[in-house]
Amino acid sequence: MLKVEHITKYYDQNKAVDDLSFEVEDGKIFGLLGVNGAGKTTTFRMIIGLLEPTSGKITLDGKPIDYNVTDTIGFLTEERSLLTKLTVKEQIIYYGTLKGMKEKEILKRLDEWLKRFHIEEYKDRKIKELSKGNQQKVQFISAVINNPKLLILDEPFSGLDPINVEMFMEAIKDFKKRGSSIIFSSHRMEHVEMFCESLVILVKGKSVLEGELKQIKKDYRKKNIHIKGNVDIEALKKTKGVLDVLENADEIIVKIEDDSYIDNVFGVVKKGKEITQFSVEDPTLNEIFLSKVGEAYEK
Question: What would the DSSP string read from start to end of 148-207?
Answer without folding.
Answer: -SEEEEESTTTT--HHHHHHHHHHHHHHHHHT-EEEEE-S-HHHHHHH-SEEEEEETTEE
